[in-house]
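Design review, sub-item: ligand-bound model
Attendees: FS, YL, KQ
YL presented the inputs for the phosphoenolpyruvate complex:
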Amino acid sequence: MALRKLVAGNWKMHGRASSLAVVETLVDKHLNPACDVLVCPPATLIGRLSGRGVPVGGQDCHWETLGAHTGDIAAEMLADAGAEAVILGHSERRADHGETDEIVAMKTAAAWRAGLRAIVCVGETEAERDAGQTLACIAAQLAGSVPEEATGDNLVIAYEPVWAIGTGRTPTLAQIAEVHAFIRESLETRFGHGIAHAIRLLYGGSVKPGNAAEIFEVKNVDGALVGGASLKAEDFGAIIAAA
Ligand code: PEP
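KQ shared the predicted structure:
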């Protein structure tokens, strides 16, 4: 059975109070009853965006509930501000902040403790793809970043090839299909058929209005994680419409 699609926007370090208008326009013109939508703004905007008609998520959380961690934010704080989900293990966090699979797993457990759905990102670098290591890389990230208690409600996996993020380049549809099938099989082996087929698998990396429809047609693609194009209501709306 096909899962309900999820289109999630990752605003990264973009967004000011003026960006609230993006969400207002989405709600006024661009929601699609056939799919779920999530907006993940910077933490400063979570409280301001929650309750405005689109579910809101964070972009990272600490693995502890509280403590002396200057500049960090706990999953419980995201939930307190109105977030329902959190992106974890994004390649920019893995690269900029040295996040390992072990850290991502701890953060995922923290998100679950706070009642948040975790969107765990995995994806190969260009060098790994060129070396024929794509599936091995995905296997290692999945095994290391996802704790045992995964369910269809608390986990979403986003396949984001690092070389496709923000570059305008995308894998072929066959390459997306291959990796998504591999992720589904890996989840099946580890968690069983029922859970594996309830976990949504998003594709992320240069999703645009012009390529969204064909990507959504690919088997085992249950939605998209959208960076740049989620900052413009028209573009994000067109992607939502394609889902
Ligand atoms: C992302 O950062 O998660 C992403 C997919 O970015 P973009 O859509 O801009 O490639």
